[in-house]
Every structure is written in structure tokens, then in C-alpha cells.
Amino acid sequence: MNENPKVSETIEMIPVGYVENDYIEPVYNEEVYKKVSKIVLKKEFTDGLYRIEDFDKLYVLFYFSKSKGYELIHRRRYDGEISGVFASRSPHRPNRIGLTVVELLKVEGNVLHVKSLDAINGTPVLDIKPYRKETEEKNKVAQD
After folding, report:
1. Model pTM above 0.85
2. Containing domain of residue 39, as a range?
3. Conformation bin of residue 51: beta by default, left when phi > 0, alpha when psi is -120 to 50
4. What positions does the domain TsaA-like occupy (predicted)?
5. Are the C-beta atoms of residues 20 and 40 closer than 8 Å to each other?
6. Which of 2, 52, 96, 142 gives a 20 to 30 Å CA spacing to 43?
7. Sign of the CA dihedral 47, 40, 51, 139?
8. How many independent structural domains does the chain possess?
């Protein structure tokens, strides 16, 4: 498949909010999955949280704002194996996009309290989507 020359090489996104937690520097630490973080949405996006409490878990897409450069082949942090960047969860990626599933603990206005967010303080949040086990299982069956 050839690249479509009509497609722009630049994609512009604006953060819908930012992460607040105690992690200042990007280091691999399993403890982060046990900690509570806040996702503070910009006020103009607060209405987008309507009925988010219907879900126990959420996908959070974010921007690795402190990540610099990438290698297509590297050693994975979690198991030490050599792999391609797309076969890892490395923050050093061509588009520096992070994705994680978090547990939603509570909502206070424009602030989500979540557990298991592996992003550092100040990280721009690009999007939030509900995680539905039923949808994931349907997708898995369709792939098998």
C-alpha cells in the first residue's frame, strides 16, 4: 500500500486536559499502577463527562510530552526482550502517543480520579474513552 500524497503530514490536536500526580520525571516504575492520579479536564470539556460514571474503566490517550526521539528496535522495559517499538509500551515512539486503561474511582466536576495511569504530572491528555469488556470480547472473537 502506498502512502496517500493528498493526506497532510501534520495532524494537529489539542489537549482536553492534563494529568496531576506525584510523578515528575518519566521513569519506569510498577508502583505507578497502584497510585491515584487526577485527570483535570479543561472546563469547556466538562459536559463531555456526562454519564462517565457508567463505566468502571476508561481508556486514556495522552501525549508523551517529555519523550525525546525513538528507536525502531530496542529493549522492552517490562521483560528485557528486544522488540520493535510497535511491539512495546515504550514512551519513545514516532508520534509519542500513550494509551492506558485506568480504573475510574470518582468524578468531581471536571476532575477524574483514576488508578493505574502511567503518565507523569503535567502530561497532556488527548482523549478519554469508555472501556467496555463486552466490546473488547466481541472484537477478540471477531479477530479469532
Report:
1. no
2. 17-66+92-133
3. left
4. 13-140
5. yes
6. 96
7. positive
8. 1
